[in-house]
TrEMBL record:
The gene is bbs1. It comes from Sphaeramia orbicularis (orbiculate cardinalfish). One of its GO terms (molecular function) is smoothened binding. One of its GO terms (cellular component) is BBSome. GO terms for biological process: non-motile cilium assembly; protein localization to cilium; protein transport; retina homeostasis; sensory perception of smell; visual perception. This is BBSome complex member BBS1.
Length: 587
């Protein structure tokens, strides 16, 4: 087999990947839905099967790569919308077939040769539309009348017009007659097209078990096809056109089909119902859908990656640095490792496990398709195609390990660790029973004690206001705060008053401080002090000296009044408890 040229890749991923092959001019233009890996020869080597879109209107091909070389290619009649490899029978050797969805048909290839063509059943044709074309066939109406009648039918009818009528309405007037002469004798058909395709195991979950084809159509239907007779086993309806799909389970046992639709919602179909079982409403349209274990990971156009349960419960959400171009699952059964590969428009491919970024790969061009699996004889091969038609192959090192690191802000991982709660003791159980039996009485006692405490606090506050013992102004117009510091052993004391304006932004001016004291015991050197302008938030110290004139060894209270000049009513009153003088009184 063809050998791959390997070299270590050190592009922001810690050297976890080996660069096996890169061909920037491979000319392979495709998406993740049109790429698959399968052992098409039964020799144990997996090939890359891709539906090449070509230039958009021509050169559509089914290409098969082996190693680094193009093994074979077959022409396709229409643009492929999806491609899957599946086992359609139990014949030996076990070689899978390839199904290519293109337009309204599925082309099945076996041994890389055309094997079977399945065409979707036709849709109901509008009866009024048939009558109008019948009149054209009989020459009863002209082309302008035909156009007017078809436009009226399109506006009012429940059944959409056929492709022929829609094409006719888009023509210019000089082209209508030629179109009518060419098509008027042909019967009218209304055909839908396939938008998405997948596989569903029929009865066993074995890797080489027989699989059914699951297809979604433009007519908002999902069909399950028998792999041998290609008859419709089941039909389910959706509210909108399916664009992305993931299938799990077995058809004969239980299955679950997760479908992202064009209306921006995700629907979950189950075996027992032909209508969606659950609905997930997204804030923006989905561009990628991948199942990891029992959860669904969705990439959206708002540059976010979101995780949901099978029933639609949102688990997490994380942002990505650029718009998402493609997504695929990364499954390593030998290591029990599952993650999601996300291709971004900034030429990077990120590997996520839940919302944790595990690895980042730089690419020369924006990636349009990603596929991970067994390629050749390597189990961990990552195959990517770029916007310019390049083909890139990387191989995961056998020694590579991925450390989960949570780059998103939020609670630490330790918060989710379950606490080791001790067992319930007999005392705890008895106390719980007591609280249950006497809950009402205990609550009343608590409320009574709380009310008494509030009453005592209110009485103390009123008493402080009435006796002017509060060092904080009770007036909202002049918010002031005062505290006093007495220094010295006597008979001379230094008294410092710290005054603060507690207003938010308004200064206070024209204030003064006066002292009231027993003149038989004390003499204040400056009994009247002028207060400077008080800037909000700053503390202004005012100092004076107090001299003790008594030799009886007693002390008293000195009252401090803060008032506005020219007014007798104080704004704030404080009491200073003077210490006992330890020296002889001054003469």
């Amino acid at each position: 087999h063809v050998c791959l040229l390997l070299k270590s890749s050190a592009c922001g991923d810690g050297g976890k990947w080996l660069d096996a092959h890169y061909d920037p001019v491979a000319g392979l233009y495709t998406f993740s839905s049109c790429v698959d890996l399968a052992d098409l020869s039964g020799d144990g080597e997996s090939r890359l099967v891709a539906g090449d879109l070509g230039c958009g209107a021509s050169a559509m091909k089914l290409k098969v790569y082996r190693g680094t070389a193009l093994m074979s290619e077959s022409a396709l009649l229409d643009l492929p919308s999806g491609l899957v490899a599946f086992f359609m029978d139990l014949h030996q050797p076990r070689i899978p077939a390839v199904a290519v969805a293109s337009g309204p048909c599925i082309y099945v290839y076996k041994n890389l040769r055309p094997y079977f063509k399945f065409t979707l059943p036709g849709l109901e044709v509008n009866a009024l539309e048939q009558d109008v074309w019948q009149q054209v066939r009989e020459g009863q109406i002209d082309q302008l009348t035909l156009k007017e009648m078809l436009e009226g039918i399109r506006r009012k009818a429940d059944v959409p017009l056929s492709v022929r009528s829609l094409h006719f309405l888009s023509l210019e007037t000089n082209e209508m007659d030629q179109f009518i002469q060419l098509h008027k004798q042909q019967p009218i058909r209304r055909q839908t097209v396939i938008t998405v395709i997948g596989t569903l195991k029929k009865s066993t979950a074995d890797e080489d078990g027989v699989s059914c084809l699951v297809i979604g159509t433009e007519s908002c239907d999902v069909y399950v096809l028998d792999p041998e007779a290609f008859i419709i086993l089941s039909k389910m309806s959706l509210p909108s056109v399916p664009t992305l799909m993931d299938v799990t389970g077995q058809f004969d046992v239980e299955f679950r089909i997760t479908v992202a639709c064009r209306n921006g919602n995700i629907y979950i179909l189950r075996r027992e119902s032909d209508k969606p079982k659950y609905c997930i409403e997204l804030s923006s349209h989905p561009v990628g859908l991948v199942r990891v274990a029992k959860n669904v990971v969705v990439g959206c156009t708002d540059e976010s990656l979101q995780g949901f349960t099978q029933k639609g419960k949102k688990l997490w959400r994380t942002l990505v640095p650029a718009p998402i171009t493609t997504m695929a699952s990364m499954d390593l059964p030998t290591r029990g490792f599952q993650a999601v590969l996300v291709g971004l428009a900034n030429c990077e491919v990120h590997l996520y496990r839940d919302k944790n970024l595990l690895s980042s790969i730089k690419t020369p061009d924006a990636v349009t398709s990603v596929c991970f699996g067994r390629y050749g004889r390597e189990d961990g091969a990552l195959i990517m195609t770029t916007r310019g038609g390049g083909l890139m192959v990387k191989i995961l090192k056998r020694t590579a390990t991925f450390d989960e690191r949570d780059s998103a802000p939020g609670p630490p991982p330790a918060q989710s660790v379950r606490l080791n709660v001790p067992k319930k003791t007999k005392l705890y159980v008895d106390q719980t029973l007591r609280e249950r039996e006497n809950g009402t009485a205990m609550h009343r006692a608590f409320q009574m004690d709380l009310s008494r405490m509030r009453l005592a606090a209110a009485k103390a506050y009123v008493k402080a206001l009435e006796s002017s013992m509060a060092p904080v102004s009770s007036s909202a117009a002049e918010p002031l705060k005062v505290n006093a510091v007495v220094q010295g052993l006597g008979p001379s004391f230094k008294l410092t008053l710290n005054i603060q304006n507690t207003a938010a932004a308004r200064p206070v001016l024209n204030l003064a401080v006066s002292f009231l004291y027993d003149e038989k015991l004390y003499r204040v050197r400056t009994p009247y002090l002028r207060v400077p302008l008080l800037v909000p938030g700053l503390v202004y110290p005012l100092q004076t000296f107090v001299e003790c004139t008594s030799d009886k060894g007693v002390s008293d209270i000195i009252k401090v009044f803060v008032l506005r000049e020219g007014r007798s009513a104080p704004l704030l009153t404080a009491h200073i408890n003077m210490p006992v003088s330890e020296g002889l009184p001054l003469a």
